[in-house]
Amino acid sequence: MDAFHPDLSGDDHGPDPAGESTLPLRARLHHIRADALDGDTAQTGGMRRFAAISGASVGSERIWMGQTHVAAGTASSNHHHGESETAIHVVKGHPEFVFLDNSGGTPEEIRIRTSPGDYIFVPPYVPHREENPSPDDEAVVVIARSTQEAIVVNLPELYVLGSDTP
Q1: What are the per-10-residue average pLDDT scores of the chain (166 residues)?
Q2: Contacts of 58 (CB under 8 A, 6+ apart)
Q3: Residues forming a β-bridge with 131
Q4: Which helix (H) or strand (E) holds 113?
Q5: Quick one: pLDDT at residue 51?
Q6: Cα gap 46→131, rounded to integer Å
Q7: How many C-beta neighbours within 10 Å does residue 162 have?
Q8: What angle do CA 114, 139, 90 make, to 5 degrees?
Q9: Which helix H or strand E contains 58, and what residues bound it?
């Protein structure tokens, strides 16, 4: 018995002979190697998403985390992430994030230009797209979402959240 974890037996603390842990998914730490990211996730045209932390990979219940790659000279399709809050950390390149702002009475396209180390927050249901204006270099961002899996709703166009245009 472990004094800090009295509900775990001593046999549960190490790997089995094959190197796999005998602990349940939610009773241990998980190491997801960069070459083990899962590309079988919701996708948007112009981007490639890879899951790292998800219910399927580690048993997470309230968070999803992964990477998005945007090829040089491309833009994603317009989309939103449903009820999920999304936090983005720019790792490589200078991606741009585009949405519509109606605070002046007329919808205006707003473009946020980023650099490595920058962060972006996308509230639930806000239509947006990512663009990579670089003609040569791929942009890479790390994404964390408040829902357990990646939610992606692809849209035919951008619209102002709360407007009558779906």
Answers
A1: 44 47 64 71 70 82 88 92 94 96 92 97 95 95 87 90 62
A2: 25, 30, 32
A3: 75, 96
A4: strand 108-113
A5: 80
A6: 9
A7: 9
A8: 45
A9: helix 55-58
Structure tokens at 27: 């009773």
Q: So what's the pLDDT on residue 32?
A: 74
143 neighbors 68 (Cβ within 8 angstroms): yes
- 14 class by beta-carbon count within 10 Å (0-12 exposed, 13-18 middle, 19+ buried): exposed
Eight-class DSSP state of 21: B
Contacts of residue 82, defined as CB under 8 A and 6 or more positions apart, other chains included, come to 124, 125, 147, 151, 153
Q: Which residue has the tokens 């580690």?
A: 58
How big, in percent rounded to 5, are the helix, strand and coil portions of the chain?
10, 35, 55
Q: Can you tell me the distance from the alpha carbon of 117 to that of 73, in angstroms, rounded to the nearest whole number?
A: 21
Q: How far apart are CA 133 and CA 74, in angstroms?
A: 7
Let me know the angle formed at the C-alpha of 16 by 15 and 19, rounded to the nearest 5 degrees. Answer: 65
For position 17, what pLDDT does the model report?
42
pTM: 0.75
